[in-house]
Amino acid sequence: MENKKLDIIVKSCEDKKGIDIKVLNINGLSSIADYFVIVSGNSSSQVSALANEIEEKMGEAGYELNNQEGKNSMRWIILDYSDIIIHIFHKEEREYYNLERLWSDESNFIDK
């Protein structure tokens, strides 16, 4: 990947053993962001650890978090970095909501 933000986010997910990390290029398909990153955790504590690692590493690199949702539930956390929105799911919620199906065109997925 060429995008430094995406590199930091994906590395943070890998460092915390995130499951099934997907990067979707939604540039031109949506006005809300250029990329979605979707990752799962096996437990609420892993979901929290993934969010915390991303926030820490992005902050160290000078990127500001615009908004976050879901930190209280630890089942689905959204981190908004303007052009990149990260969806961190508990694996059961990810299976239920299946965001990937909404962006089912495989050309939208980026190899990490």
TrEMBL record:
Interacts with ribosomal protein uL14 (rplN). Belongs to the Iojap/RsfS family. It is found in: Cytoplasm. It holds the Pfam family RsfS. Its main location: cytoplasm. Functions as a ribosomal silencing factor. Interacts with ribosomal protein uL14 (rplN), blocking formation of intersubunit bridge B8. Prevents association of the 30S and 50S ribosomal subunits and the formation of functional ribosomes, thus repressing translation. Keywords: Cytoplasm, Repressor, Translation regulation. Gene3D superfamilies: Beta Polymerase, domain 2 (3.30.460.10). GO terms for molecular function: ribosomal large subunit binding. One of its GO terms (cellular component) is cytoplasm. GO terms for biological process: cytosolic ribosome assembly; negative regulation of ribosome biogenesis; negative regulation of translation. This is Ribosomal silencing factor RsfS.
